[in-house]
Specification:
It is rod-shaped and about 125 Å long. The two termini are 32 Å apart. It contains 2 helices and no strands. The protein is mostly helical. Helix 1 packs antiparallel against helix 2. It has a single domain, classed as Orthogonal Bundle (Helix Hairpins), CATH 1.10.287.1700. 90% of the residues lie in helices and 0% in strands.
Length: 148
């Protein structure tokens, strides 16, 4: 029996490879987003810690220069938090772009896989017709031989 060989198999393989690459790229940008979010969380925790120190320092005997230094550091942390929020937003945009690319790649692969599946179904149907024709010819030949 003949074996099915899809004419466009290399395209199917390419589309599968493109999908795998898009999955890998998406996982990379998701990892970056997670890192940015963790970094932002650490900055917020550090800011809360320093704000608490500043609040408790007002009830203790702390020099004015120390209070000003704490306040300046908190303001510095605030500016770092603003910058980190922008980084998180960029990472979220990259993740969304990666998801769109992956979705497109998955759709392309699905189209080509469906095309291959349809071609394979047609091949099987043709093979069944051929086999049935061969069996009919054998039956006819036997009948003719037996009739003689």
């Amino acid at each position: 029996m003949a074996r099915f060989q899809y004419t466009y198999q290399k395209i199917v393989d390419l589309k599968t490879s493109e999908k795998s690459q898009a999955e890998w790229q998406l996982s990379v940008v998701i990892g970056k987003l997670n890192n940015e979010e963790q970094s932002l969380q650490q900055l917020r925790e550090e800011r809360a810690s320093w704000a608490e120190r500043l609040g408790s320092a007002s009830s203790e005997a702390v020099s004015l220069s120390d209070l000003l230094a704490m306040q300046q550091y908190i303001e510095h942390l605030d500016s770092r938090i603003v910058h980190k929020l922008a980084d998180v937003k960029k990472a979220e945009v990259a993740v969304e772009a990666g998801r769109r690319v992956l979705s497109d790649r998955m759709m392309d692969e699905k189209v080509w896989q469906k095309s291959k599946s349809n071609a394979q179904d047609r091949f099987r149907a043709e093979m069944l017709v051929r086999e049935q024709n061969e069996l009919d010819e054998l039956a006819t030949a036997r009948f003719m031989y037996a009739a003689q």
